[in-house]
């Protein structure tokens, strides 16, 4: 290439650059087609409870379909979380997940396995719900109080069965925290999500489960289940008579099931801004508020900056809990 040809080629570069759409232009166009919201659990659990009304509200705000995609592949939600982490960071694959997001990579490391994803791959968008976990048993169970449950478990180590959403999922970690503090041994029966675990307790396959208030309220009202204790720091409005574990002397037993929306870390900032605005609107939607309150899980909204700090703090606490629990087969 001679000097004249080089100058002509160089002069054309700004024109070529200008022809490419900027990230702001991309955000103005977003979304142009259907958005997928991955829920890494079966329908009926806390993440699904959060996702469905939010997805419907986002459709109204963004003008495009938002499809809830339940990835009920087990592994405590790891499979769905990993799928969202690997997705293109274009705003068309979102993740509505639970606090176990931080636990599962640490569990992989406990077993010397490569983590299938890392929390650092995600950008927190908004927290939607945040409920303390409740210890629930069938209404037909012999235990009327937490003290009776613990006393029986001490007499029969490993015989009382509890269901979970999978190894090191939210329900598993909560129960093992309690068992370690109480000095009891329970039998862990993992399922592919919170809903199958609840079904197992209703059919008598397991004897106990840790679950969120929103998924238990109707079952308790219908006389099918009974609750014995609350993993929160305080009693909650939907179960005002239910004592906390701390009230019963278990000072180190505290656990919350929060649900939040995440995108990929590399999501263009203009799209993230639009998504945050849409989420701020969606949690004010009367149908969203009504759905959550009817389920006993009121909106617990946090915008991205506050939510990111919350995730960092909560994740550190949960990772420390998993390390204390150690390898649980």
Automatic annotation (TrEMBL):
It holds the Pfam family TctC. Residues 1-24 form the signal peptide. The keyword Signal applies. Transmembrane segments: none annotated. InterPro entries: BUG, Bug_dom1. Keywords: Receptor, Signal. The keyword Hydrolase does not apply. SUPFAM superfamilies: Periplasmic binding protein-like II. Belongs to the UPF0065 (bug) family. This is Tripartite-type tricarboxylate transporter, receptor component TctC. It comes from Bradyrhizobium erythrophlei. The lineage of its organism: Bacteria, Pseudomonadati, Pseudomonadota, Alphaproteobacteria, Hyphomicrobiales.
């Amino acid at each position: 290439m001679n000097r004249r040809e080089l100058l002509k080629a160089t002069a054309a570069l700004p024109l070529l650059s200008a022809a490419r759409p900027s990230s702001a232009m991309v955000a103005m166009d977003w979304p142009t087609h259907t958005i997928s919201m991955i829920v890494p659990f079966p329908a009926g659990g806390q993440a699904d409870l959060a996702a469905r009304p939010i997805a419907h509200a986002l459709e109204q705000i963004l003008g495009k379909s938002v499809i809830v995609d339940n990835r009920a592949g087990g592994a405590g939600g790891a499979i769905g979380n990993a799928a969202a982490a690997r997705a293109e960071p274009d705003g068309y694959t979102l993740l509505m997940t639970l606090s176990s997001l931080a636990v599962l990579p640490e569990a992989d490391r406990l077993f010397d396995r490569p983590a299938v994803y890392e929390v650092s791959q995600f950008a927190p968008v908004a927290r939607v719900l945040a409920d303390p976990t409740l210890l629930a048993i069938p209404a037909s169970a012999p235990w009327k109080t937490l003290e009776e449950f613990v006393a029986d478990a001490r007499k029969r180590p490993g015989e009382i069965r509890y269901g979970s959403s999978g190894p090191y999922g939210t329900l598993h970690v909560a129960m093992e925290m309690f068992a370690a503090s109480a000095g009891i041994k329970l039998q862990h029966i993992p399922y592919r999500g919170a809903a199958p675990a609840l079904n197992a307790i209703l059919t008598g396959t397991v004897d106990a489960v840790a679950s969120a208030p929103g998924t238990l309220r109707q079952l308790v009202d219908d006389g099918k289940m009974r609750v014995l204790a609350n993993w929160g720091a305080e009693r909650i409005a939907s179960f005002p008579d239910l004592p906390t574990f701390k009230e019963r002397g278990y000072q180190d037993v505290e656990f919350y099931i929060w649900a939040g929306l995440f995108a990929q870390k590399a999501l263009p900032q203009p799209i993230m801004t639009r998504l945050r605005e849409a989420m701020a609107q969606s949690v004010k939607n009367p149908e969203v508020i009504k759905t959550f309150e009817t389920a006993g899980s009121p909106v617990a909204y946090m915008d991205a900056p506050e939510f990111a700090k919350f995730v960092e703090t909560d994740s550190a606490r949960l990772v420390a809990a998993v390390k204390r629990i150690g390898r649980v087969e």
